[in-house]
Write a structure and sequence with these properties.
Radius of gyration: 16 Å
Strand order of the largest sheet: 3-2-1-4-5
Oligomer: single chain
Distance between the termini: 32 Å
Structural class: alpha/beta
CATH topology: Rossmann fold
CATH class: Alpha Beta
Length: 204
């Protein structure tokens, strides 16, 4: 029996950057956060509204529908996960939550790539986990882009600190952490950046 897209993603996601020597087959990469992007950040929602977001009708990974729909026009686009959920819950659990459509696009996870696979600096060694956890999301993505060298990339995240002006203008969808991709404005912004970075959709 052929493997499902989810099974393939679980098997290949940690290996593809190595197999391609730091280059993905597709040059189109979406750096994807989870909390604050695919569902509200529970802690910030509580801080802002003094309510539990899960008791207000929200569900984990509820934004996957919108992301999958937006990416339909770019079948060769791939995903690199930036979320700490992969570290805390495990890659397979996150891929399961993403569903087979998005999971089949996943080629890596920034923590694993930068601390185990990337050849960085003069010594050509991976980054230490201690250094990784001191960095902002912008710095993590910047290091990963420098290693992976995609020809085009977009980042979808709720962490706004330390992105450059050019990154904010041309590459970043900075979501409201209480809305994520449920916000139509974030969906419109992502579509704009997909066209701007990946070109007009090849799918009619």
């Amino acid at each position: 029996m052929d493997a499902t897209p989810l099974e393939l993603a679980v098997t290949l996601a940690p290996l593809l950057p190595v197999a391609t020597a730091g280059r993905v087959t597709s040059p189109q990469v979406v750096y994807l956060g989870v909390s604050g992007v695919l569902h509200p950040s529970a802690s910030l929602y509580k801080l802002m509204f003094d309510k539990n977001c899960w008791q207000q009708g929200h569900t984990e990974y509820e934004g996957t529908f919108y992301l999958e729909r937006l990416l339909e026009g770019w079948p060769s686009a791939r995903i690199v996960l930036t979320s700490t959920q992969v570290w805390s819950k495990g890659l397979q659990a996150v891929l399961q939550c993403l569903g087979p459509g998005l999971a089949s696009r996943v080629i890596g996870y920034t923590f694993d790539d930068l601390t185990r696979r990337a050849e960085l600096g003069r010594q050509g060694q991976p980054m230490s986990p201690t250094i990784y956890w001191t960095m902002t999301r912008a710095e993590v993505v910047r290091h990963h882009v420098a290693w992976l060298q995609p020809d085009a990339w977009v980042a979808v995240d709720d962490e706004a600190a330390l992105w450059t002006v050019d990154e904010r203008r041309g590459h970043c969808v900075l979501t409201d952490p209480c809305k994520g991709l449920l916000d139509p404005a974030a969906q419109d912004r992502l579509m704009t950046l997909l066209v701007g970075n990946f070109g007009i959709s090849p799918v009619s």
